[in-house]
Design a protein that fits this description.
single chain; alpha+beta; Rieske Iron-sulfur Protein; Naphthalene 1,2-dioxygenase Alpha Subunit, Chain A, domain 1; four-stranded antiparallel beta sheet; binds FE2/S2 (inorganic) cluster; binds fe (ii) ion
């Protein structure tokens, strides 16, 4: 499986690496460990010790130095070996390092060549900044590809059928739908009219429980797999400007070709005070139930049914809701192919003495 490498992926919530804790993740088929250095800045390095391939997550962190549990070599956040209990520090034993930035309540990691990592290109999830919002955060590990996850969020026609008693209603198919590409973004926008939502959704959107409402559900995708659902509602017939929009982040990172990390969140303005904090904590737990009990088994079974093929290698049916996901996947594949071509042409210029 190939992935876009020159891109910012989410590697975890910022709260997942507490001072002195070592967090291990498999990302794009590579073992990565993350920790905070002495100054508190996040660091990401290969999780495999270059001496005998021990897992560094089994080691310990001491004053910003990661000590291997097997023979005691120590590595700093820059990947250099800085401690050898048996003598001189071996300069050739280095860890691969990954640029990592803490922003918008998340840890963003760059999986490509480090000199291409521009923090200005980190996707805008400012609504998740803790200074501005109460953020309820969740995580699921899903045994399905990130492509299936992207299609799941970009085609929310499924909420009527897969989540009929939580996120959906019988009115969804009667609403309006459009998708569009706007530069690097894909938008998949849906509006549902005159539906009675379950109390938790109505409360999240600030509309009266048990009464008809008009709900908009607008999804934004940005490569490789960072999505937002901007959703809000107003009492039926009222203008959208009177409603409160609640953004939910849906951040996917491939773990392997057939499994994904899924970080999700819901944000409410800090200005709401304790009510906003209570809503953020309660609503993220509400969302987790359909994600875990409906979507997760559906996606994992889809992955099984693909029988070892990727979506790109598979002949698929077509419904109107598929267009946004298909465009997103084609944009991903174009970048994967461009990176492969670029790597191949770099190989063309490899000196014969190295290539032999
Ligand atoms: S395997 Fe890590 S020090 Fe030997
Ligand atoms: Fe779903």
């Amino acid at each position: 499986m190939s992935y876009i490498r020159s891109a910012w992926y989410v590697a975890g919530w910022d709260t997942e690496i507490a001072q002195r804790a070592i967090l291990e993740r498999r990302l794009l088929d590579e073992n990565v460990v993350m920790f905070r250095d002495e100054g508190g800045a996040p660091r990401a390095v290969s999780g495999v010790c270059p001496h005998r391939y021990a897992s560094l997550a089994m080691g310990r962190l001491d004053n910003g130095v990661l000590h291997c549990a097997y023979h005691g070599l120590g590595f700093d956040g820059g990947g250099a070996c800085v401690h050898n209990p048996f003598g001189a520090v071996p300069k050739t034993m280095r860890l691969k390092t990954y640029p990592v930035v803490e922003r918008h309540s998340a840890l963003w990691i760059w999986m490509g060549e480090a000199d291409g990592a521009d923090p200005a290109a980190i996707p805008d999830f400012a609504f998740n900044d803790p200074a501005a919002s109460w953020v309820g955060k969740g995580y699921l590990n899903v045994k399905a590809s990130y492509e299936l996850e992207i299609e799941n969020i970009l085609d929310l026609s499924h909420i009527q059928f897969l989540h009929p008693t939580t996120l959906g209603s019988g009115e969804v198919a009667n609403g309006t739908y459009e998708w569009k590409q706007d530069g690097e973004f894909i938008w998949s926008n849906r509006t549902v009219f005159g539906e009675v939502m379950v109390p938790e959704l109505a409360q999240a959107m600030g509309v009266p429980v048990g009464e008809k409402a008009d709900r908009w559900i607008n999804v934004r995708w940005q490569a490789p797999s960072n999505l937002v659902i901007f959703a809000g509602a107003v009492p039926a017939g009222r203008p959208q400007a009177e409603g409160r929009e609640t953004p939910t982040a849906h951040l996917f990172t491939p773990e392997t070709a057939t499994s994904s990390h899924y970080w999700f969140s819901i944000a409410f303005p800090r200005a709401m005070g304790p009510q906003g904090e209570e809503l953020a904590n309660r609503e993220v737990e509400f969302l987790k139930v359909p994600f875990e009990t409906d979507d997760l088994p559906m996606l994992e079974q889809q992955q099984c049914n693909l029988g070892g093929k990727t979506l790109r290698e598979t002949s698929l049916g077509w419904l109107p809701g598929d267009a946004a996901g298909a465009r997103a996947r084609n944009m991903i594949y174009a970048r994967i192919d461009a990176e492969a071509e670029s790597a191949a042409s770099a190989g063309d210029h490899m000196p014969a003495s190295i290539g032999a």
